[in-house]
Amino acid sequence: MSDRYADEAVIRRILTGSKTWAFVGLRDNPGRTAYDMAQLLQSRGKTIVPVHPDAATVLGEPGAASLAAVATPVNVVAVYRNAAHAGRITDEAIELFRTYGPRADDEIRAVWYPLDVVDEDAARRAAEAGLDVVMDRCPAIEWARLRLPR
């Protein structure tokens, strides 16, 4: 895979400028990577929205059963599911962002695919829809690599 979806400026803008992340696949299981990343970003001041069919509360935040059921605008959709599901989730993310209406110049609208979640076609569709895309990257590693404030 190329570094096409690993632009440092985009990663920095997403990590520093975003406020709310929807974590698709997040459930109340501290043994899962999604839980660790949600907890890390929450500790850095981000609001997290757990998205899982159980719609359970995770890390004190109420869950949604699907992206369509998310009640608050989000800046980033993080795809913490197997790559086989990334295409469907990306299409749902594109539709979610479309429901927000016109985009302000400084508004972040992004899809983040963590390590080992690679779907070039899904990423291309997201980019064509005007979304920022980061693929095969870990928020914690990128936060440290860019030496962002804690």
UniProtKB/TrEMBL annotation:
Cited InterPro entries: CoA-bd, NAD(P)-bd_dom_sf
Domain named CoA-binding: residues: 15-102
Protein name: CoA-binding protein
Taxonomic source organism: Actinoallomurus iriomotensis
Organism lineage: Bacteria, Bacillati, Actinomycetota, Actinomycetes, Streptosporangiales
